[in-house]
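Think of the structure tokens as a kind of shorthand, similar to the way a musician reads notation: each symbol stands for something richer, in this case the local conformation of the backbone. In the example below we present two proteins back to back. Begin with the first one, reading the sequence and then the tokens, and try to describe in your own words what changes along the chain.
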Amino acid sequence: MLLEEILLANTFFVHEYRDCLKKLDHQPKKQVAIFTCMDTRLVEFLEPALGIKRGDAKVIKNAGNRIREDCDDVIRSLAAAVYLLGVKEILVIGHLDCGMSRVNQDVLTERMIQYGIPREEIDKIDLVSWIGGFSDTEENIVDAVRKIKQHPLIPKTIPIHGLLFCPDDGKIEVVVNGYEQL
């Protein structure tokens, strides 16, 4: 069982690392918030590629680093990071080969039906839009930067950068330079 594996790994971790772990402050040392995708290829890869260590940044993840009009959880988290945790810059990081850039409505519908979701519930929504699918990764990054910048509760003085990350080699490309947008 996965839960048993996790608990065993945690017992080992706590025992093995207890002497070298130090308590960190809630505020990120580098005063940065990162909004990125939940893709597993980014785990233990994205932060080192950015020079980010434990305690340096606030990291917010969702499927496809997508900000939907009807859901502002990302904005809420970024506002908390700015106003409560001292964040001074925001990085929106999309990545190449994102699974959300090729969501197939028919496949998604079929899988939901296999899990017992009633067809009439599925038909009530535009699944691709609801799940956060998109077709152009760079456009998605620009869109997220724009939505964050335009939100009335995000200060106009915060640089919001848009970056494109390669999950194969760790290379970063600047899509939006937030300093130029101020």
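Once you have a description of the first chain, move to the second and do the same.
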Amino acid sequence: MDERETGGHGPLEQALVTTVSPAGDLVLADGTVLRLAGLAGGGAGAEVVWRAWLIRRVAGRDIVFAASGPPDRYGRRPVFARDIAVPGGAAAPVASLQQALLGEGLALARPEASVLGCLPALLEAEASARRARRGLWRRLPLDARNVAAIRAEQGRFTIITGRILDVGKTSRVDYLNFGRVWRQDMTGRIEAPGRIALEARGFAPGDLAGRRVTLRGTVFESGGPAVAIRRAGQLDLDDDVGDDVGGYMGGYMGEGRGRARPTGDE
């Protein structure tokens, strides 16, 4: 692994993986639990979709890893990792386990604070699965007009795409409204850190009215399904994609470019 894969974190360590937990964490021989930083997907409170892949790949074998931050509240160490050997004795691939899982469509890139330096490499690996519609990408991204499908993902990290009809604003939050009924339809909530990050990229939240975007984050209920945007990596402009995403034809076709709404009353 190089700095592009690990975000400049280190030093490298080596250890034996004895098992993989239902949450997709690597359990080492000494009891240490490693969380693969920058990944999400596969369910909440259930076995993640990448567990079986990791068991085949690294259970009972050594890996090398670099910490990307301090242990979390559960005592797990967030890391970037790769295996030393693969079945058959072949040399280890250069890609991290994160990049391999993303490329297989078994995980989604999550722009958490400790991985921002290597986020481009993760997104690049993810893009190959998205183009081929492998794994999770057979059903993603969700269409922002399909409120029922998004609401079913409450508590889970997912990816949503759609055209912003208007942008509401309060003193603390900007609201990206994907439907006419603000208390029912999908909303992206840009909080203060997200506003600062987006402005650093050269545009204000109000500039997003009428634009097609892709959001990534954890769905929660706020009068309708919502995603909180705290980092620029959670939002991508996607104006060159049509409105018929994944074959979903309901909702608000032909709404035009949208409008900026200077005050919000959500």
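Compare your description with these statements about the second chain. Residues 119-132 form the longest helix (14 residues).
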